Amino acid sequence: MRRLVALYRSPAFSPNQHRRNDRAILDAVVDHLSGGGWRVVRATEPEIVQGRLPAGDLYLNMCQGPEASALLQQQLPADAVCINPPEAVLSCHRHRLVSLLQGSSIPFPATVVISTTGPEAAAPPVHLVTDNGYPVWLKRGDVHAQTAEDVVAVRVPELRQALSRFAGRGILRVALQAHVPGPVVKFYGVIGREFFHCYPAEAGDPPDTRCDEPLQELAERAAQALGLAVYGGDAVLTASGTPVLIDLNDWPSFAPVRASAAAAIARFASRRALSNRYSCSTP
To answer: How far apart are CA 280 and CA 277, in angstroms?
Structure first.
């Protein structure tokens, strides 16, 4: 019998209500696949860090931390299928994400990654990202936001104090990003247009037709650039009609559309396991 290994995200990277929702989407995908004849083994991110990786033919990977991802790069069987590969997960860590997206043709705000201490913090290079009078965004520079304080809008005169607060919480680098005016849209997807859903980030914002084809095209291109199969993110719908990507992450919770997303991810994973694409060695 084919062996499926479901790798659950560490609570450290899945805070508050996300913990329940992240587990729920992976459980739902596993339920679909177990009904299709896969033998299921579950493991947690802390277990992976401890070197306890079960053998499998298909891995559903929600691990997000650098330690687990580095170990998975070394230990995953080369002939297994992994969704998402650890290389793609590491590409979503913000300091890498910024470099990868700025080196592409994907619309992305002006962003620099700086230290929260030393000369850069004493004289933040805000001129490199904005001169439009808007506040700038500070985002922790490693993994995704774990608390509300990890992504904040800051007025330029208050930037040094904000950097000091990040440093005080042990965050050594941040992304300093220009503000892009316009409504923010959240999206979820499975590569190859297997699944896509988007909705306004603010409940009071009206739906927008640009939440379809242009945004889906942007999201697909970004996911391909990072090597992601299951992804989510945020974009701004600008006045010109061009969506601008402001964040991308690996395997979100899909909470508003869990049932339909789980079915789509399971179909995708099953087909990839048969064709052996998106193997664990795929960047």
So the answer is: 9
Q: How far is 79 from 280, CA to CA, in rounded Å?
A: 7
> Into how many domains does the chain fold?
3
Query: Strands 58-61 and 81-83, how do they pair?
Result: parallel
**Rounded distance between C-alpha atoms, residue 76 and residue 53, angstroms:** 8
Q: Give a yes or no: residue 105 inside a domain.
A: no
Quote the domain boundaries for residue 206. 184-252
| 280 belongs to a structural domain | no
Percent of the chain topping pLDDT 70: 92
What is the four-CA torsion angle of 151, 154, 158, 161, rounded to 10 degrees? 0
Q: Do 7 and 82 reside in the same domain of the chain?
A: yes
Report whether the peptide linkage leading into residue 249 is cis, meaning its omega lies within 30 degrees of zero. no
Check: pTM over 0.85? Answer yes or no.
yes
Specify the CATH number for the domain of residue 114: 3.30.1490
Q: How far apart are CA 49 and CA 70, in angstroms?
A: 9
**Residue 71 pLDDT greater than 90, yes or no:** yes
